[in-house]
Design a protein that fits this description.
- The protein has about 375 residues and is of the alpha/beta class.
- The protein has 2 domains: about 210 residues, Rossmann fold (3-Layer(aba) Sandwich), CATH 3.40.50; about 130 residues, Rossmann fold (3-Layer(aba) Sandwich), CATH 3.40.50.
- It has 12 helices and 16 strands.
- A 6-stranded mixed beta sheet has the order 2-3-1-4-5-6.
- A hairpin with a 2-residue loop joins strand 2 and strand 3.
- Helix 2 crosses helix 11, helix 3 runs parallel beside helix 4 and helix 8 packs parallel to helix 9.
Length: about 375
């Protein structure tokens, strides 16, 4: 009798506490590793319970490769039957995974600033600030500092295309002329030819359409040849690896980023100062002083959005079911004024990024540290 009662109580416990499974794909190896590794680190300190239910994270490495990213996403969706997917930090992999998420009707939140058409990709979200929002901040700084001609060098992939087209539109509207369009592959170890062409144009400043440590290469090359104009970068470079690789060559580099990176430097009334400081304390307790980075904070924000959405989804269905995936997608889309570390998120049927100008600040490398400009 006691044995059967024990088994019955066990079954009731499983019904009351259904496990939520979160799939995470990161570029922990390959050219995007400086972005993916912090996300993998952050996954280890994400909440273990959400909405009163236990959460299990399955983390896979997509090796900075879209094909591997597709396979990882498919495995998580079909074999592991995850309830939600935290997508890759590298744009080509994230784009490939979004296709899987759409096909499997699996809510996916990417940690890459990909362009999303909610009408065609209702299950796909992306929390990093859209490149257009960040590029506009750079353009404003250029105009204020009398930059009239801007050189461009960026990745020869989807991220390079996106950064170039965004800067071309923003700079053009502000009266800044782009003098060239040079490209290089993420794994390249030299960009001498590209930079010599760009330097010959003698632009007032240079915009690097890259991300992670490989973005330092053009500035290193230019500095070695005495070309000391201002270099602007995307928000994909704001981590320790970029400075470690670039050293003194990247002193003065300017980039937009989420407020969390310089949380201590924010004014006391900034809406994200408290959440940013709380994350930094938790992350640096685990990984050491100075380990902070924008991408780990993105992972934290994804978890914050999921945490806000789960209670609503649980009212409609149980985890591990297609109905729960749908309910979770619907709840994420209705995220309203959720404070993360990078942004105050408000999603909608027409906006699957959910960020505004509160999600950006400008920083500059000064004495080997990221310092707030404004």
């Amino acid at each position: 009798m006691k044995k059967w009662m024990f088994l019955l109580l066990g079954c009731l416990s499983m019904q009351l506490h259904a496990e939520i499974v979160v799939g995470v794909t990161v570029s922990a190896t390959g050219p995007g590793s400086s972005l993916g590794t912090p996300i993998a680190n952050a996954a280890k300190i994400l909440p273990k319970t959400v909405g009163g239910e236990p959460v299990r994270y399955i983390v896979l490495d997509d090796a900075s490769d879209p094909t591997a990213g597709t396979k990882a996403a498919r495995k998580l969706a079909v074999e592991d039957k995850v309830d939600v997917l935290i997508g890759s930090s590298t744009l080509p992999s994230a784009i490939a995974q979004a296709t899987v998420a759409s096909e499997e009707r699996l809510p996916m939140i990417a940690i890459a600033p990909m362009a999303i058409d909610p009408a065609k990709q209702p299950f796909v979200f992306s929390i990093p600030q859209p490149i257009s929002l960040m590029v506009d901040a750079l353009t404003e700084h250029m105009v204020a500092n009398r930059v009239r001609n801007l050189g461009f060098v960026g990745f020869s992939d989807a991220w390079g295309d996106l950064t170039y087209s965004s800067m071309k539109a923003s700079a053009g509207a502000a009266g800044v002329n782009i003098t060239g369009n040079e490209r290089y592959a993420r794994p390249d170890v030299a960009v001498t030819g590209q930079m010599l062409k760009l330097m010959a144009q003698n632009p007032d400043a240079v915009f690097v359409g890259g991300s992670g440590a490989p973005s330092a290469l053009p500035q290193i090359t230019a500095a070695a040849r005495g070309f000391n104009k201002t270099f602007y970068h995307t928000h994909g470079v704001v981590n320790r690896d970029f400075i470690c690789v670039g050293g003194k060559s990247v002193e003065g580099a300017i980039a937009p980023t989420g407020p969390v990176v310089v949380a201590e430097q924010l004014p006391a009334d900034h809406p994200l100062k408290a959440t940013g400081l709380a994350f930094l304390k938790r992350y640096e307790e685990e990984y050491g002083a100075g380990s902070r980075n924008a991408f780990a904070a993105y992972a934290w924000d994804v978890a914050t959005i999921i945490e806000a959405a789960v209670p609503t989804a649980l009212k409609a269905a149980k985890p591990g079911t297609p109905a729960f995936r749908q309910a979770l997608r619907d709840a994420i889309e209705n995220t309203h004024e959720v404070k993360g570390t990078h942004a105050v998120y408000t999603m909608s049927a027409t906006d699957h990024h959910g960020v505004d100008k509160r999600a950006r600040v400008l920083v500059r490398v000064e004495n080997g540290e990221w310092k707030l400009i404004r």
